[in-house]
Amino acid sequence: MSVTIMPEAGGAHATLRRNFWRGVWRVMKRKPSRLVGVVIMAGFAFMGIAGPLLYPAQLPRDTDALYAPPSWQHPFGTDFEGTDVVALVVTGSQYVLLTAVITAVITVVLGTGIGLFSGFKRGRWDTVLMRVTDMKLTIPGLPLLLVLSTVWKFSAAFEMGLVLGLLGWGGVARAVRAQTLSLRERGFIEAARGLGLSTTHIVGRELLPSMAPYIAMNALIAVTGAVYAQVGLFFLGVLPFEASNWGVMLNTAVFGGGALTTTAALPYLMAPLLAILLLTLGIVLVVDAMDEIFNPRLREE
Amino acid sequence: MTNASTAPGVRIGDLTVVYKTQAGELPAVSGVSLELAPGSITGVVGESGSGKSTLALSLLNAVQSPGRISGGSVEIDGLGDVVGLRGESLRKARGRHIGYVFQAAQNSLNPLKTVGKQLLDLGRSHGVDDLRGLVREAKELLGRMGLDGARVLDSHQHELSGGMRQRVGIMLALVLNAHLVVLDEPTTALDMITQATILRIIREVHEERGLTTLVITHDIGVVAEVADRLAVMYGGRIVEQGPTGAVLGAPSHPYTKGLIKAIPRLVGSLDEARALPGRPPTLATVPTTGCVFRERCAERMDVCDSDDPPALAHGDRIVACHAVGTSEPAQLQEEVA
């Protein structure tokens, strides 16, 4: 055992890192469903990054087969132009997933940053920031988006993600602040202060890791929230669109193809829905492992 | 390294710490003067809420808001007046000059990190270049306290017992070579045998490394075991201080007398142990004028209502009581015995 921590300080660091990933693997292995979740999420990540590269910029159209039923050639049939639905789902994923990731990053970074600062500093800054947060929480999201969509086209994923992220950080900030207020009174934080550790260290290396499972969970939930929100907007048709994405597909399937009244466009409707369902499932399965990953006590045995 | 001459002396002068409450600023520690001689172990005893921990935290200038040090000084040799220290210089002093073992050291370790990682964090925060040497030093200290250093450093908090965590706490307080060590309730929540072990370790490490030690406790037994000098706190004041043996053997302040009377003896009837009447004052109920102890005092006089008794030297001890000095300590000794 003596070699695990020493002989070298740098080595010790590396060893602990490695132990962490070994622990993560153990946690994942404990429930195979978690591995399934990871595989699903990795699949979506690959789809979002490399998907559009797999197809030509202008997807081939088969004008002889409009709303073709599922076949080996077109597993989910074709759309109103005769384009393969699977190809549409894959190429349309980039906008959706990129938006979701940007939203999650903004939500978590802003929420955690403001929550930590407020909870740790307390006093005047806390009051000001929390009043701002409260005000932000009272802004209704959907109506604001509807209004914004009249002036903004959201043609880039970044714009969409920015708006959704700025709308979403309030809850996280509140919750992180509450956690910080509770954690900062704990013995080990007091001890860290008494032993002369710097404030940056205390906030970044002692407080933050204790909240890591919660924050990671919120990031993943923000991803699903962002997917629902933007797909909903496109589905309602309040956003003008130039390129295809899952929400646009749902919109055209229902309002263009009449998927709710005829069966012809049903596969076209089902494909993006299935993609959203699968993504949510993958996230739920991974979230299940978060607590055990970050808590060394649960990570072992 | 283990050199008694490096032990710093500490002079606490007229220290007052107040807490801000609805009812204004109330003193948790008022006008405390205490001197820790270099190389000595000083014990501070008192009931819960008597201001012991606040006094100890003042040594680090670490009284948390809504509390603040409103007056007085804490002079530490080689460091100056801690009350005036701010920011980086204060942070560096903590851990390096002053080692602090926290109340409930069982909860003083980060549950998410191994002890070794926390040790490295500590080293980096204090700009230690030789981290390998730091780890070696930590292992040596842990070994000295009867633990397997390598195993402990590779453990998380939940893998250690209460006594082991307490020793880890002591190790972290000493590993940066602090020569002034403050132990806040070092044996609370430990079983008797572990208590005895910890006390022995405190004594031994104190002598080997040449430390100045301050032990805060509510357990007179602990103080009797380790301390050279003893200070008794009541209502934010030190009511009596002097050599441990003398204070415990022949207490002169009525409160100290009451405390000792309340201890059940090994021999004789249990009924002889007599609890102090009344209850200790809280921040809000502590009298602002006159003696803080008068409500519970058996030797109350008229002057106690109006005048705060000054802390006066009586031989080798300092007592703050109007009744002391009029009667001789020798007489009191008979009374107790």
Please report the distance between the alpha carbons of the first and last residues of chain A. 17 Å
Number of helices of chain B: 12
**The top level CATH class name of chain A:** Mainly Alpha
Average pLDDT, all residues of chain B: 86
Strand content of chain A: under 5%
Radius of gyration of chain A, Cα only, in angstroms?
A: 23 Å
- Helix-strand category of chain B: alpha/beta
The best one-word shape of chain B is: globular
**CATH topology grouping of chain A:** MetI-like fold
Overall pLDDT of chain A, averaged?
Answer: 84
Of all chain pairs, the largest interface belongs to:
A-B, 33 and 44 residues
Overall 3D form of chain A: globular
**Biggest sheet overview of chain A:** none
Oligomer: heterodimer
Helical content of chain A stands at over 70%
**N-to-C SSE string of chain B, H for helix and E for strand:** EEEHEEHEHHHHEHEHEEHHHEEH
Architecture of chain A, CATH level 2?
Orthogonal Bundle
Note down, in words, how this protein is organized.
The complex is a heterodimer of chains A (301) and B (337). Chain A has 301 residues and is mainly alpha-helical. Chain A has one domain: MetI-like fold, CATH 1.10.3720.10. Chain A has twelve helices and no strands. Chain A is globular, with a radius of gyration of 23 Å. The two termini of chain A are 17 Å apart. In chain B, 34% of the residues lie in helices and 23% in strands. Chain B has helices spanning 52-59, 87-96, 115-125, 131-144, 149-153, 162-174, 192-209, 220-226, 244-249, 254-261, 302-306, 329-336; strands at residues 10-21, 24-36, 41-46, 67-76, 80-81, 98-101, 180-184, 212-217, 229-234, 237-243, 312-314, 317-319. Residues 327-337 of chain B have low confidence and may be disordered. Chain A binds chain B through residues 1-2, 4-9, 12-13, 16, 122, 186-188, 190-198, 201, 205-206, 209-210, 294-297, and chain B through 60, 62, 65, 91-96, 99-100, 102-114, 116-117, 120-122, 125-126, 131-132, 134-135, 150-151, 153-154, 156, 158, 169, 172-173.
